[in-house]
Specification:
The complex is a heterodimer of chains A (267) and B (166). Chain A is 79% helix and 0% strand. In chain A, helix 10 packs antiparallel against helix 11. Chain A starts with a helix and ends with a helix. With 166 residues, chain B is mainly α. Chain B folds into two domains: 67 residues, Orthogonal Bundle (Rna Polymerase Sigma Factor, Chain: A); 82 residues, Arc Repressor Mutant, subunit A (Orthogonal Bundle), CATH 1.10.10. The chains are: A mainly alpha (267), B mainly alpha (166). At the A-B interface, helix 2, helix 4 and helix 5 of A face helix 1, helix 2, helix 6, helix 7 and helix 9 of B.
Chain lengths: 267, 166
C-alpha cells in the first residue's frame, strides 16, 4: 500500500521525465502489475497531455499574428509611450489644456482685474495711509501734514511781512514830531508782538528752507528790536536814525518783493 | 526592433499562457518590451538576457492577472469550476477534448500563484525546470516541488470530471 502511494506520488515526475533511470524503471514495473496505480497513471497522463496540448493551441493562435508587422508596432508604441511620459511634454499638454480658447476671456478678465487692483492699490494705499496709529480717529499722511504746515508757514510769513510793512510805513511816514505821539503805546507793543511771532517763524523758515525770506525777516527783526526799545521820550534824532535805517536797507521794497515771491511759492 | 523581432514569440507564448486571450497577450508583449527598453541599463552585462526578459514578462503578467483576471473567467461563463465539474459528472456524457481543456485551464487558474506560474511555464511554454528556476530566481528543488504540488492539486480539482475521487 505504501509502495502504491510512493509510486503515485512519483507519477508526475515519471511522466515529466524527471526521475532517474532506476526510479523510472521501478515505476514502470509497478504499473505493469498494479491496475489501481495504472489507472492513476492514466488520469495524470490525461492532465499533462491536456496541458501540453494547450501549447498546440498557442501555436494555432500564433499562426494568426503578423509577426513581421508586430516589431514596428511595438517600437512605435514604445516611442509614443516614452514621449508621453516625458515631463516637458506633459507640461506642454497641461498648458495647452489650461489655455484653451474658450477660457481666454476668463483669463483676460482676471488679468484686467489684477492690473486695476494694482493701480488702485498704488493710488490709494500710499505709504502712511494705512499705518493708522492705534486709537487715532482721524489720520493724515506725513506728506499731507507737511504740505499743510508749509502753507501755514507761508501764510504766517506773509502776515508777518504785511504787518511789519504797515508798522514801518506808519512809522516812517509820520512827521518827526507826530511820530512820537503815534508811538506812545502802539508801535512798541506791536513790535514786541511781531518779535515773538518771529521766534515761531524762525523754526518754520528753517524747516522749509526759506533762506531768503529768513534773511529779510531778520533785518525786520533788527528794526523792531530798535523800535521795541523806543521809549516815550524818543528824540527826533533817534526817529530820524531809524527812518534812515529803513531807507538804507530798502526794507519796504524787500518786503514787497518777498511777499510777491511767497505768494508765487518760489521761495 | 531587432530585439523585439528575436524574442517577441517567446514573450507572447508566456503572456498568452497566462491569459489565453490574444489581445491581452499582445498588450503584455508590448508592455514587456517597453519595460525592457526602460530598464536596459540595469541589465548586467554577460547575464542571461532571455531569463531577465521572461522575468519582466512574468511579473507584468502576474500584476495584470491580479488586476483584471480575478473573477473574470468565472463571470464569463457564469459558473464556477466546481459547478462545471459537478454538472459534467452528473451528466455522465462523453466529453470532448475541448471541454476537458476548458476545465483544465480553469483549474489551472485556481492554483496558487507560484504553482500556476510554474505549471504554465513547464507545460504551456515547455520550459525546462532549470530555465524556470532561473527566471523565477528559485532553486531547482523548489521548482520540482511546486510542480508536483500543482499536479496534485489539479488532480484533486479535476477528479470528479475524470470519474473518480481525488
Amino acid at each position: 500500500m505504501s509502495d502504491c502511494r510512493n509510486i503515485q506520488n512519483g507519477l508526475a515526475a515519471y511522466l515529466s521525465g524527471d526521475l532517474s533511470r532506476d526510479s523510472a524503471l521501478s515505476v514502470k514495473e509497478h504499473l505493469a502489475m498494479c491496475p489501481k496505480c495504472k489507472n492513476e497513471f492514466e488520469n495524470i497522463k490525461k492532465i499533462l497531455d491536456g496541458a501540453d496540448s494547450l501549447h498546440d493551441d498557442i501555436r494555432k493562435v500564433m499562426a494568426t499574428i503578423d509577426w513581421d508587422a508586430l516589431p514596428g508596432r511595438i517600437t512605435q508604441a514604445v516611442f509614443d509611450k516614452e514621449k508621453a511620459a516625458r515631463p516637458e511634454t506633459k507640461a506642454r499638454t497641461f498648458w495647452k489644456a489650461v489655455f484653451q480658447p474658450r477660457w481666454r476671456p476668463v483669463y483676460a478678465g482676471v488679468a484686467a482685474g489684477l492690473v486695476l487692483g494694482v493701480i488702485l492699490t498704488l493710488v490709494f494705499l500710499k505709504p502712511g495711509v494705512l499705518r493708522t496709529p492705534p486709537g487715532a480717529k482721524y489720520y493724515a499722511s506725513n506728506e499731507f501734514i507737511d504740505r499743510v504746515e508749509f502753507q501755514m508757514a507761508k501764510r504766517e510769513t506773509l502776515d508777518y511781512l504785511e504787518r511789519s510793512e504797515y508798522l514801518i510805513l506808519d512809522f516812517i511816514q509820520s512827521p518827526p514830531g507826530k511820530a512820537q505821539l503815534l508811538q506812545k503805546d502802539q508801535p512798541a507793543q506791536k513790535a514786541k508782538d511781531l518779535l515773538s511771532k518771529k521766534r515761531y517763524l524762525n523754526q518754520q523758515l528753517d524747516r522749509f528752507q526759506m533762506a531768503k525770506a529768513k534773511e529779510i525777516c531778520n533785518q525786520i527783526e533788527f528794526l523792531f528790536l530798535e523800535l521795541s526799545q523806543i521809549s516815550e521820550e524818543l528824540t527826533a534824532d533817534e526817529i530820524e536814525k531809524i527812518q534812515k535805517l529803513v531807507d538804507q536797507k530798502q526794507l519796504l521794497l524787500k518786503i514787497k518783493l518777498l511777499k510777491k515771491e511767497i505768494e508765487k511759492s518760489e521761495v | 526592433m531587432t530585439l523585439t523581432r528575436m524574442y517577441q514569440k517567446k514573450v507572447f507564448v508566456l503572456t498568452y499562457s497566462f491569459f489565453r486571450n490574444k489581445e491581452d497577450a499582445l498588450d503584455l508583449v508590448q508592455e514587456t518590451f517597453l519595460r525592457i527598453y526602460q530598464k536596459i541599463n540595469t541589465f548586467e552585462k554577460g547575464g542571461n538576457f532571455e531569463g531577465w526578459m521572461l522575468q519582466i514578462a512574468k511579473n507584468l503578467c502576474i500584476d495584470y492577472y491580479r488586476k483584471n483576471y480575478g473573477k473574470r473567467r468565472e463571470l464569463e461563463s457564469g459558473k464556477t469550476v466546481e459547478e462545471l465539474n459537478i454538472a459534467d459528472a452528473r451528466a455522465e456524457e462523453a466529453h470532448s477534448a475541448s471541454d476537458f481543456k476548458e476545465i483544465l485551464t480553469r483549474c489551472v487558474d485556481k492554483l496558487a500563484e507560484r504553482q500556476r506560474t510554474i505549471f504554465i511555464m513547464r507545460h504551456y511554454n515547455q520550459m525546462k525546470n532549470e530555465e524556470i528556476a532561473q527566471v523565477l530566481n528559485i532553486s531547482l528543488g523548489t521548482v520540482k516541488s511546486l510542480h508536483f504540488k500543482a499536479i496534485q492539486n489539479l488532480r484533486a480539482l479535476i477528479g470528479p470530471y475524470l470519474g473518480c475521487e481525488g
